[in-house]
C-alpha cells in the first residue's frame, strides 16, 4: 500500500474510503456524490476520471468513474485495491438485457461475469478462472432490493470487449447459457478483487434490450438509476456493524 498517487489517480493515502462505488461515467460519479453524500471532497481529476469521498448515513463512501471497458476499470480498480487499501468496490452500471426473461428496468446483480476478453490470461492458471462477486455483498444487495420491492435478478452477466459486435448471433449464444445481461467491465473488476483478496460486486440497471428494440426513456432511466443507487448505498455500512 501507500504507493500514492499514481499516474491515473492523484489522491493521497487516506482520501479514499474503504467502500467505493464505481459508475462507468465520471459525470455520473459527480452527480451521485452531490446527490447522496455529505461533506463531499473531490480526490481525483486526472483524465477527468472524477472521484469523490463523503459520508452516507455516517459511513465513509467514495464514488469514482471507471471509464468504459476492462482495460479502464482494470487500471482504476487495481490501484484502488492495491495502492489505496480499498476493501470493496461496487460497480453501478447500465446494461443490455440478454436472457429473454430480462425486462427493461430490472436490477441485475452479477453473481458471475462471463467474458470474451483475455484479461484473465495474465493470471496464468492451468484452467479457466470464473470471475465471481463477493458473496456477502451479493447477498446483502439481493436482500436490499427485495426489501425495497425492486425487480431484481441474480446470475451471470457478460462482460464484453465490444459494444458494436460484428457477430450479430453472439448474444443469442450467451442467452442460451442463461446469461442475463451484457456490459463491459465486471469480469476485470471481479478478477482484480479475487487477485487482491478484496470484495467486488456489480449492480446493473437494464436500460435497453437490443433483441427486442427496447430502451428506457430518459425519465425511466433516471428512476431506475435511483433504485440501483439505493441498493448500492445499502452496502456502505460494513457487514459486521449491521450484525451488532
Ligand atoms: O453505464 P456504464 O457503467 O458505463 O456501463 C455500460 O455502458 C457503457 C457502454 O455504453 C459500458 O461501460 C457498459 O458497461
Ligand atoms: O454494454 C452495454 C451497456 C448497455 N447496453 C448494452 O447493450 N450494452
TrEMBL record:
The keyword Transferase applies. Its EC number is 2.4.2.3. It is an enzyme of class 2 (transferase). Residues 19-235 form the Nucleoside phosphorylase domain. It catalyses: uridine + phosphate = alpha-D-ribose 1-phosphate + uracil. Keywords: Glycosyltransferase, Transferase. This is Uridine phosphorylase. The lineage of its organism: Bacteria, Bacillati, Actinomycetota, Coriobacteriia, Coriobacteriales.
